[in-house]
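Here we describe the complex-level prediction in full. Unlike the single-chain runs in Section 2.1, the three entities below were treated as one system.
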Amino acid sequence: MQEEPKYARLWRIVAAIPSGRVAAYGLVADLAGLPGRARLVSRALRAAPAERDLPWHRVLRADGRIAFAPGSQAARTQIMSLRDEGVVIKGHRVDMRRFGWRPTLGDLMSLPY
DNA sequence: CCATTGACGCAGG
DNA sequence: ACCTGCGCCAATG
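The structure predicted for the assembly as a whole is:
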């Protein structure tokens, strides 16, 4: 049996983040079984094929801040997508207590391949 | 092969 | 709230 490639495992977690909720890079890594590898998540997202259509905009820094520089095109796109889903952004950040995704074990167990 | 670079996170000060 | 340092490590030059 072969181990699922790291990027694919990260992509699966990101794909599971529900609309209207957000998750930190570090949480995505943890849930993918790669604790301490937050930076790998950013790499995986850059490398993700567009066809996969991942909700990358739902991934933020641990403190709720948008990872991209304020005013950058990427940040504006991300903010727009989040607002479309009802996520409130103030001062370039999101209130993680309100919008943070907290999956149950059941959620994780029933992830599609 | 060595150095630098990040869509990061956390502990300190 | 802001800054600094360190751990992390695949990718890039």
